Structures are given as structure tokens and as C-alpha cells.
What does this fold into?
Amino acid sequence: MSRNGPRRLLLVVLTALGLVCAGLSAGAGQALAATAFPNVVVPAPVSETADGTTFTLPASATITSDDANTGGYLAGVLRASTGDALPLTVGAGSPGTIALSLTGAPASVGTEGYQLTIGTGGVLIKAQQPAGLFHGVQTLLQLLPAAVMSPIVQPGPWSAPGGTILDYPRFGYRGAMLDIARHFFTPAQVEHYIDELALYKINYLHLHLSDDQGWRIAINSWPNLATYGGSTEVGGGAGGYWTQADYSAVVAYAASRYMTVVPEIDMPGHTNAALASYASLNCNGVAPALYTGTNVGFSSLCVSLPLTYTFVDQVLGEIAALTPGPYLHIGGDEASSTSASDYATFIGKAEQIVAAHGKSVMGWHDITNAGTPPAGAQAQFWDTTTSAPNLATAAANGTKVVMSPANHAYLDMKYTRKTKLGQTWAGLVDVNTAYGWDPGNYLTGVTGSEVAGVEGPLWTETIVTSADIDYMAFPRLPALAELGWSPWSTHAQTAFDQRLGAQGPRWKAMGVNYYHSTQITWPAGS
Ligand code: TNX
It folds into this structure.
């Protein structure tokens, strides 16, 4: 033991006693209690040290930012609700009242993290990359009063607790999926959802662009896919499709929120809309009718037909050219009308086509039934089991896994038996079920660095409007976002439920149609 060993031990014991006292009696532990930030930030940050001071945004405040986009975003949110001018200066110069800086951040924040310091005189967010500044801005906004999220001017004061937060994500992949095939959603509706997801540091948007009921993106070399295959949806409505310019605009909008789009063309099953659009894609040369029901597993591309691979190559080629992100998602789920050997043949070829277009493949974890995908692949686990042997084998061989267990992460499951929207095949998923699992230690043989992250899929058989999207995603999506971002050491249901409750008034201010789960105490009026 070193000479000061006993003294250090004494210090540790005294500190521990102090912490215990602080926990037992607010009076005795005042100094320590004053150093706690309010428990309001979702996802919970890595570490925070409050200093007991308060920052109040003056009407004369200025904003400086090393990144025009994030500075503009923050100014936009604050100007709308505070009604103050809040002039923004981008680039060099003396720091404004709120300063976003790309110099001096600790190395530990990495590419997406940040250090946020709130003092009586101002706020400083430091990051290594603009994405980190953006995530720091989200934390700052959550520490300001809920009314700051209002699109119309509200009374202040605009105060936040003083101190320092150091924060960075547990997982690099924190996704949300929206199915615009079962019901069509416009680019504007998706951009609205992107804005909501960005509040919780989601960084991947997976778009399910095709399914039995609709093909939603224009493909120049196969024009009927969109014009005919996109002409209906579940229930027989008019459907719709995005032009390639629409898609590119959404990709750019997502990028402005530091979110990467992962486009999915689901194959070889879930392809009735494509098969209905081109008779030549069918083994028997006959196009099936368009489909507006909700069954799955009845359609398959024709695996033995050479034209099938021309089709896959041209479709994926056009989408790859429009997609700056690294992944093309080929679906691969529920191909129950494709034989196992045909399935393996098809997936192997599709994986090669993705690689030939310079992208990494993503697929539902069923693709690992066809063997280990090529290097750089990600398989997305969706089942309700806790073991998937072929996926575990692929993971051991280098495939990364995105965790979307349907009984925890599916945003289309009903919350309770009384929920009007949604399905029940994977069970009921209320908030505590959405939060109550560890993505890094869930599937047998798929742990640690084999897990790329999490994703919350929102299938839309029963989802028709943006209000429906809100209702199913909130408050569950923030639970998943916290599992993806926060260190496991912060995982505690009661504390989480509290900080989730703090989001209610913010959603109210924004007009988010969230589900008032009875598992959460929502502040009065929210
Ligand atoms: C299963 S799980 C599907 C989708 C449905 C969803 C409904 C998976 C990869 N596919 O085709 O929309 O259930 O919950």
C-alpha cells in the first residue's frame, strides 16, 4: 500500500458516507444535492456535473457557431418560441451568449458526442463534428423550459441549470424505420417525423420503400413500379410514390439533422406490387392483381429468371446513385413463398449486386439463413426469441447486428389491449417493455461489439396519418433511443420514467399526438 493509501481510503469512506447522507436527508446533503442536474434529459447523458447556478437567456443574446447548419437550427427553434432576435454569427470571432465550437472538445466525445457547459453568463457546446454540436443542442433544449419547443412566441424566462455535461453514444447505429409502402406518406410527413426523431439523437432513418401493397419510389428503368405499383395501399386508397427528386430532398433533409437514410427494397418476398407492375417478372408470365390486404408471405420474385437480376441490379443501381449513406437494405424477411434453396440463391446474388454498386448490405436477420453476408453487412434482428443461431454464426463471422426485437422495439405493436391502432402478434409493448431490455446483451451469442445498435420499426398496416405515427412512436421511440445512446450504467426504470414524463410538456408544446401511457406520471396539463 502506498504511503497515502490509508488517507485515500478514509476519503473514499467519507465521500461514500456523504453520498448516503445526501440520499437520506435533503437538508444535510444540500451541497451535494445542489450538484445534481434535473432528471429531464432523454437519452440520459454519460456524465453530468451541475454547479448549482442558473443561466437565463437574455433577450439581447447572440449565437455563434462553427457550423452554419446547427447554428441555424438552434436559432430557428429559439427565435420561434422566445420571440428574440438572437443574431447568429457563423465562424471565427468572440463567442456569443450561446457558442457552438468545433475546437477544444475532449477526444472522448468522438464523432457524435459533445461537451456542454452552462454558466451564468452563457452556454458553450464543444464537439469534434457538427453532429456532436447538434446532439449537444438537443440536450440544451431539453434543459430549457418545455415552452422553448413551441412554434409560437411564449413568455420566458428561459433558464437552464448550470454545470457541465459530457456525452457520447453507446452505439453507432440508432435507427427508426418507417414503412411508407403499406400506407403512403409524403416527403413532408417523413420530414416532420425526422424532426421528431432528431430530438432523441436518432441517426439512421430506414425507409421501407416497397412491399406487396405499394412501390413508393420512381425507378427510371422500370417506370410502372411507381405509376402502377404505387397506385394503391392497404385498404385500397390512392397510394402514391416519391419522385427521385423527392427522395433526394428527404435524404438531404435527414442529413441536415445528422441522420443517414437507409433505403429498403424488400425482396424476394413482399414483392406483389412489383410483380403486378411487370408480367415479365413472374415465373408464369402473368401479372397478379394489385393487393390491398395485410397478409404477408405470399409473393416472391422469380429466382430462376435471369430478368429478375437485371431488375434487382437496375433498381438497386438507381437507388444507390441517390443514396450517400453506406447501406442498401434488401429486406429478405418472411419469404415463405420462396424455397430455402431459391432463397439462398437469391440473397447471395442480391448481396453481390449491392456490393457491385459500392454499398454494404443490410437485411432482416432472415438473410443469415443464406449464410454469412459479405464483409460490412448488417443484419437486423426482428423476432421475439432470444436466440437466432444463424444470426449468431454470421455475427461471429463479422456481420454486425441491429437489434429490433419485435416484442420490445416494434412501434406498431399495441401498447395495451385497448390501443386502437397497431398489431399484437409480438405482444403488447408499453413503455416499460420498450425500455426493459439490453440490446448489447439480449441475443444468445450476439453481444458487445457485434451489436451495431438498435432500430424501432414502424409498420403501417394500421397507421394512416402523421397523428398516428406520433401516437405509436411517442413515448416508445425515446425509450429505444435511450437504449441506443446511453451507457447501460444509467439504465434504471423509475429514473427513466421520470425523465420521459418531462418530455410530455415538450410534446404538448410541439403538438405531438403522444400516447399518455399510464406507466408514466405526466406533468399536469401535458
Ligand atoms: C412483420 S418482422 C413484418 C412486416 C409486417 C410486420 C407487422 C418483419 C421483418 N416483417 O412485414 O409489417 O410484421 O408488425
The pocket of TNX is lined by residues 296, 333-334, 364, 382, 406, 410, 412, 423, 459, 461 (CB under 6 Å). Residues 1-33 have pLDDT under 50 and may be disordered. Residues 250 and 391 are 32 Å apart (CA to CA). The longest strand covers residues 47-56.
